[in-house]
Amino acid sequence: MRLSASEKYEIIQEVTTSEIGVKQTLENFGIARSTFYKWYHKYLENGYDGLKTSKITSKRQWNSIPEEQKDLVVEIALENTELSSRELAHKITDEQGVFISESSV
Fold it and tell me: Do 36 and 74 share a domain, yes or no?
């Protein structure tokens, strides 16, 4: 469950002013210390706005091949039609310095 910026802010205030300690206070909230400190550092760096959930800006899938590399693969594959996908992947890696797995060829 994602918390709003105001909820994160309230938790930061509670934890930093608590007399029972950070660990116990976070256990009471059910929040991991790593999560709290991530929020806390964002708050210290950017104030309240740092606590707002940021939108993911990348529309590219994490494991997709960039367009210029796709073009390179197609170009080399068309020039070397006798090579298997494994051989093409090795050729591209060795000659172009770009790692492409054979399953991507």
Answer: no
